[in-house]
């Protein structure tokens, strides 16, 4: 029996090594230099012309940027005496909180975190176009973190938060970079935050990550409840990706039972690596605690397909079949790949953050605007869902 499991794990994870859930370069260590923010404490995604130097004030000129994030994590610090060195992949037995900045280069294009290969070649610079983590800071106590956020929200017109929860095979830095890219590309005007659970950031550590996300539920719950009750945010929105959905679905069920007065805004479930039957049984808690819950699925997601092969049961984030649950909007994202390389080798697991049309759909949700590109369809049980065609 052990030998059979070993072969299956090897089959799944050898393919995942091509990219993994993070799909980020491993060279995403914090910068040793910690420059001051370019335009103040937290640069907005779309600074007004008055905030920019004259030579950059034109709409058709691009500029480097720093995008501020707030974070929570139950990873152990690499150096407890110097949080700026970042966090390891080992589990901690407490919730750490803080802030960091994400460097967004002038060459950044929507959906990218590593930059274009062709531009790297043209500029003879392997790091050209990469988003980078800078200025990791920690708070001495969680209470200080919440007070800092309350002070922050008092200064903002949009008093909303958006929290990103990453999936399998992510380091602290890769999850920070993805959160920064999402917030920046969405032009989110409130507070962007992320929760980083101690994934091993290793393609061959799928089983380890399965146990780590489960062991992190206590601290994820503390972070989400704190944001809802102590941060000063008028609304807290959540985006969970892949395996991160396993922690979120159980945490939301716990919150619904223990703190029924807590309410979230938009809850967005992107490519969830969750058993489809389990999802149908316990996802009702989402609808009871949120303004709206949206599930993004795809038939082209090879990572979730491999998870289905490994677990021998359908996953909520994979088509077919299309997972449809009452009072949750299911969006089937169908991608027509431009080239044979993408069709054969892309895992297509981060489509929710890379594809412009999906990002625009998410932004419309956050702004409470009607969708523009969805088409209504029905499954075999005549339940309604939506289709988003990307060509």
Question: Can you put this structure into words, describing what you see?
Answer:
It is a single chain. The chain has 391 residues and is an alpha/beta fold. The protein has a single domain, classed as Alpha/Beta hydrolase fold, catalytic domain (Rossmann fold, 3-Layer(aba) Sandwich), CATH 3.40.50.1820. It has 13 helices and eleven strands. An eleven-stranded mixed β-sheet has the order 3-2-1-5-4-6-7-8-9-11-10, with helices on both faces. The N and C termini lie far apart (44 Å).
What are the SSEs and their pairings?
Layout: H1 2-16, E1 65-77, E2 87-104, H2 117-123, E3 132-138, H3 142-155, E4 160-165, H4 172-185, E5 191-196, H5 206-215, H6 217-230, E6 235-241, H7 244-258, E7 264-270, H8 276-282, H9 284-289, E8 290-297, H10 302-311, E9 329-335, H11 340-345, H12 351-354, H13 356-366, E10 375-378, E11 384-390
Parallel strand pairs: 1-5, 4-5, 4-6, 6-7, 7-8, 8-9, 9-11
Antiparallel strand pairs: 1-2, 2-3, 10-11
The CATH architecture assignment turns out to be 3-Layer(aba) Sandwich
CATH topology (level 3) name? Rossmann fold
Which structural class do you get from the secondary structure elements? alpha/beta
Give the C-alpha Rg. Answer: 20 Å
End-to-end Cα distance, whole Å, is: 44 Å
CATH superfamily caption: Alpha/Beta hydrolase fold, catalytic domain
Instruction: Please give the count of helices.
Output: 13
Largest sheet: 11 strands, mixed
Largest beta sheet: strand ordering: 3-2-1-5-4-6-7-8-9-11-10
| Helical content band | 25-40%
**Mean pLDDT reading:** 86
What is the chain-wise order of helices and strands?
HEEHEHEHEHHEHEHHEHEHHHEE
Which CATH C-level class is it? Alpha Beta
- How many DSSP-defined strands? 11
- Beta-strand proportion: 15-25%
Number of domains: 1
Low-confidence stretches: 1-20, 25-60
